[in-house]
Amino acid sequence: xxxxxxxxxxxxxxxxxxxxxxxxxxxxxxxxxxxxxxxxxxxxxxxxxxxxxxxxxxxxxxxxxxxxxxxxxxxxxxxxxxxxxxxxxxxxxxxxxxxxxxxxxxxxxxxxxxxxxxxxxxxxxxxxxxxxxxxxxxxxxxxxxxxxxxxxxxxxxxxxxxxxxxxxxxxxxxxxxxxxxxxxxxxxxxxxxxxxxxxxxxxxxxxxxxxxxxxxxxxxxxxxxxxxxxxxxxxxxxxxxxxxxxxxxxxxxxxxxxxxxxxxxxxx
Length: 268
Hints:
- This protein is α/β, with parallel strands linked by helices.
- 35% of the residues lie in helices and 21% in strands.
- It is built from 11 helices and 15 strands.
C-alpha cells in the first residue's frame, strides 16, 4: 500500500473514535508497526492529527463518537477483489421472490451489483445498499427505524420496535469482525444487539467473510458456529479453518476470483 493511501486510511480512522492505536492502524493498512509509527509522526508534524502514547487522535475530534467499527470508507479499500467474488456467490444463492436480510457492511454492499438482475424483498440496515437497490433494481427494499451512524452508513436501534420483527427472511447475509471456533465476533455491543435481533428473523444465516477474518478476533461474541448455515469465503482459507467449519456442519463455499482479479493478483 502506498504511503498516501496509508495516510488517508489513518486520517479516516482517527475520526471514528477518540484514540486509534498503532495496532488498529496496522490492521487497517497491513503495514508494520514501525511504518505506522512513522506515518503517525509525519501526520503529526503536518498537523493533520495529534500523536499520543500508543496511537493517534484527531486534532478536532467529532462531537458524536460512532460505534466501535471501521468506517465504511476505510473498509471499502480492503480485499476488494475477494469481496466482489464472495458477494457474487452470495447472490447466486438467491431466487426471484425470496425475502432476504442484508446486514450493512462493505462485503455485503458488493451484493448490490448482481442483485440488480433479481426481484427480491430486501430488508437492510445499510443506507448505501438501500439507495443503490432503489435506484438500480426492481427489488422491494425495506429499512428499519433507528439512529443513523454516518461513519458506517448503517441504521441501528437499541429498541425492539424498529420494524425488523415484522419481517421474516429465508436467509440473512452478513459480514463479521472475526470468525473463530467460538463463532462470529463483533466489536461493539450495539452492533451485537442489533445483529442478533436480525439473525432471529431468518431461517438461514449466511456469513460473507474473506479469509483474513479467520485470523481476526474481538472481545464480543455475536453467535455460535451452530447458528451459521453457510460461510462464503475466498481461496485464502486454510485447511484447518475449513475443517473447523466442517466439524460444525457449516456449508462452505469458496468463491473463485473473477478472471481480471486473478490476473491482477498474479501480477502483484
